[in-house]
Amino acid sequence: MTRLHGIFGSEKSVSYSDTKVDTKPINPKHLRYEIFGPPGTVADISYFDVNGDPQHADGISLPWSLEFVMTPATAAGDIAAQGDSDSLGCRIVVDGVVKSEKITRAASAFTSCMLKADE
In DSSP terms, which residues pair with 15 in a beta bridge? Predict the structure, then answer.
């Protein structure tokens, strides 16, 4: 065993006392997607979830929202919807602050909102 210590390292024990890690309190941000339209509007919605994976939901009665804690995978958000009315809106809110919003007025309205990573 002593020969192995001589080959692979010192016989001195490693000191772990200097491995102090400064930990700062984590204050995660909350991201909320919203899709809205006139009463009775139904929409097909596509968005990126908390893991950054694409999701799709069909035939959703509006208004609709989804909130989750942001992760590195959700540093940029994206949502799109197509509805059966002539007005449709989307909104991305981070910690209560609107970061992206768009309202479209057209037959079978389509709308999309994007949150860039640096916003």
Answer: none
**Do residues 68 and 50 touch, judged by C-beta distance below 8 A?**
yes
Q: Where are the alpha helices (DSSP H) in 1-119?
A: 2-8
How are strands ordered across the β-sheet holding 54-61?
A: 54-61, 42-48, 77-83, 110-115
In this structure, how many other beta carbons lie within 10 angstroms of the beta carbon of residue 12? 7
Q: pTM of this prediction?
A: 0.75
Pairing status of strand 87-94 against strand 30-36? antiparallel
Q: Is residue 105 pLDDT above 90, yes or no?
A: yes
The Cα–Cα gap between 94 and 40 comes to: 27
Half-sphere exposure of 95 (CA within 13 A, CB side): 5
CA distance 35 to 112: 9
Cα-only R_g, the chain: 24
